[in-house]
Design a protein that fits this description.
There is one protein chain. By secondary structure, the protein is α/β, with parallel strands linked by helices. Helices cover 38% and strands 18% of the residues. It has an eight-stranded mixed beta sheet with strand order 1-2-4-3-5-6-9-10, sandwiched between helices. Strands 7-8 form a two-stranded antiparallel ribbon. The radius of gyration is 19 Å and the shape is globular. The two termini are 34 Å apart.
Length: 325
């Protein structure tokens, strides 16, 4: 069945020989305006690219990244495209979640609703990378009539959990949350070079120095001369697992609820982060009711949209020219 779906509705694509566009010709501040969205615990910060007189594509970054993850991709989108890339809570310039309130995927879905209400949008156009892609999946499933299209980069869905194993994870992370909350020491400091290389290592080397420098603009603070700290909330270590969890049957039911046009882009040299067959089975289910669906495999690592954006826009631009009206 999967092979039939691949040949009928899912495209596996290889973009060979694409050049790394941003290294020589890109200005990360070009045509971007800083915005702030009020929320009950503070603010959500973001960068609004392109025209302000049309509804933007809402863009969510990955775990422990920030809005700058889209800095190289957005300038390569079709002319006139408007994008609002936000720092999710605890990331970048956005406020941390209140003390005692752990991060979770469903709280992030609720954040999308807050943004929708703030701008008085009827529907949204939604793009996400990694953890952000999980949020796109959930939003498209829970609000199928309120999304124009979805774009997911290098993750398809939240993990399909084994209840027994997941119970142990929850036990461990509950203790970790309390340990972090009780910590009284200041965060460790690093030199500029040290913090850059620590960040690169933390991505399993899916970003290079040029990409890391972009992320560091919103993700690092200088506290003394050549002494830097990470500005993200240390509680984010529990972000993707301290949640209600989804069995695979639950995930498949959600996938069938997705009806909007959808593009999934998978990096060829990035892990699936969960059982590959369960991911592909979910992809098949997503293609069932989506009005325009493809799953595309592209050469690159987890942050390919940041390090090789032209490989991603080769797929996205025709999709946006069709659906981003």
């Amino acid at each position: 069945m999967l092979s039939q779906i691949y040949s009928r509705k899912i495209i596996q694509h290889v973009a060979a020989g694409a050049r790394n566009f941003y290294r020589n010709s890109y200005n990360s501040n070009q045509d971007a305006t800083e915005v702030e969205i009020p929320v009950p615990w503070g603010k959500i910060a973001g960068k609004w690219w392109g025209p302000k007189d049309r509804q933007p594509i809402l863009a969510f970054h990955g775990w422990q990244d920030n809005a700058a993850t889209f800095d190289t991709l957005i300038p390569l989108l079709p002319k006139g495209t408007s994008v609002l890339a936000v720092d999710m809570p605890g990331h970048g310039y956005s406020s941390w979640s209140p003390a005692g309130i752990p991060y979770s995927l469903m709280n992030t879905v609720l954040l999308v609703r807050r943004i929708v209400k703030f701008y008085d949008w009827r529907k949204i156009k939604f793009m996400g990378h990694s953890m952000g892609s999980m949020v796109v999946f959930l939003y498209a499933a829970y609000f199928p009539q309120e999304i124009d299209f979805g774009i997911g980069i290098d993750l398809v869905k939240p993990p399909s959990i084994d209840v027994n194993k997941y119970s142990k994870v929850i036990t461990q992370h509950a203790e970790e949350i309390l340990r972090i909350e009780a910590r009284k020491t200041d965060p460790p400091t690093y030199s500029d070079e040290e913090i850059m290389h620590k960040w690169i290592k933390g991505t399993n080397y899916s970003i290079d120095e040029a990409a890391c420098r972009l992320l560091m603009k919103r993700g690092v603070k200088e506290v003394a001369r050549d002494e830097f700290i990470f500005s993200k909330d240390p509680r984010l270590i529990t972000y993707t697992s301290f949640d209600s969890g989804y069995t695979h049957d639950h995930i498949l039911k959600l996938a069938e609820r997705i009806v909007c046009p959808y593009r999934l882009i998978k990096a060829s040299d990035s892990p699936f982060y969960q059982d590959k067959e369960l991911v592909l089975e979910t992809v098949e289910k997503m293609s069932t009711n989506s009005s325009d669906f493809t799953y595309t495999v592209v050469p690159g690592k987890h942050h390919l949209h940041l390090t090789h954006p032209e490989r991603v826009t080769e797929i996205l631009n025709p999709f946006l020219e069709k659906h981003n009206n």
